[in-house]
Design goal:
The complex is a heterodimer of chains A (114) and B (112). Chain A is built from no helices and 11 strands. In chain A, a hairpin with a 7-residue loop joins β9 and β10. Chain A starts with a strand and ends with a strand. In chain B, 0% of the residues lie in helices and 58% in strands. Chain B contains no helices and 11 strands. The radius of gyration of chain B is 13 Å and the shape is globular. The chains are: A mainly beta (114), B mainly beta (112). At the A-B interface, β5, β9 and β10 of A face β4, β5, β9 and β10 of B.
Chain lengths: 114, 112
């Protein structure tokens, strides 16, 4: 069964450092997403990406965040200057079309900012 | 924007019992309601979903019901098994948007 692959599985970084979280969506999917889950809390939407541009973003997705599809397979989330409150599990997801076409999540990257 | 409330936050049942998890949503324009199961250390996995043009959908031991008038939907798991133990999330999607709004999750514990 096709999977969304995320690397690394766990990243520890110093406050103020830049991090890049990587994702390989399912190959025939057209919509890509980043969500995050702070420990014990709900899964929160960050950003969606379609046709090489951001289609929607939440209030959380401020200027310190950016996304990129640098080639035909990878989808990255960059956090420019990490803060302690950025510590969370970050999930990448992809879908062929709208959510009801099948929304597949990766296993996540646990980001710890110290 | 959309707001999804989910209850209970934890649910403990004996193996073989039924489990029911309930969610409410605020935006009447929402028209797609998936349920996800999240096991420890893994990403959410879609287990069942329902669109607003139907009131109920069943898949073996799992069923989902939707009441559009009251803006609530529920997950029903019958004959629970220990491997059903996980965190379950409901979500809603507003018409015209591709993103999902999630509930806070329910930790289901099934004791043998």
């Amino acid at each position: 069964e096709p999977e969304v692959t995320q690397t690394p599985s766990h990243q520890v970084t110093q406050m103020g450092q830049e991090v890049i979280l990587r994702c390989v969506p399912i190959s025939n999917h057209l919509y890509f997403y980043w969500y995050r889950q702070i420990l014990g809390q709900k899964v929160e939407f960050l950003v969606s990406f379609y046709n090489n541009e951001i289609s929607e973003k939440s209030e959380i997705f401020d200027d310190q965040f950016s996304v990129e599809r640098p080639d035909g397979s990878n989808f990255t989330l960059k956090i420019r200057s990490t803060k302690l409150e950025d510590s969370a599990m970050y999930f990448c997801a992809s879908s062929e079309g709208q959510a009801w076409d099948g929304y597949t999540f990766g296993s996540g990257t646990r980001l710890t900012v110290v | 924007g959309e707001n999804v409330e989910q209850h209970p936050s934890t649910l403990s049942v004996q193996e073989g019992d039924s489990a029911v998890i309930k969610c409410t949503y605020s935006d009447s324009a929402s028209n797609y309601f998936p349920w996800y199961k999240q096991e420890l250390g893994k990403g959410p996995q879609l287990i069942i979903d329902i669109r607003s043009n139907v009131g109920e959908k069943k898949d073996q031991r799992i069923a989902v019901t939707l009441n559009k008038t009251a803006k609530h939907f529920s997950l029903h798991i019958t004959e629970t098994q220990p491997e059903d133990s996980a965190v379950y999330f409901c979500a809603a999607q507003r018409s015209g948007y591709s993103t999902l709004t999630f509930g806070k999750g329910t930790m289901l514990l099934v004791s043998p």
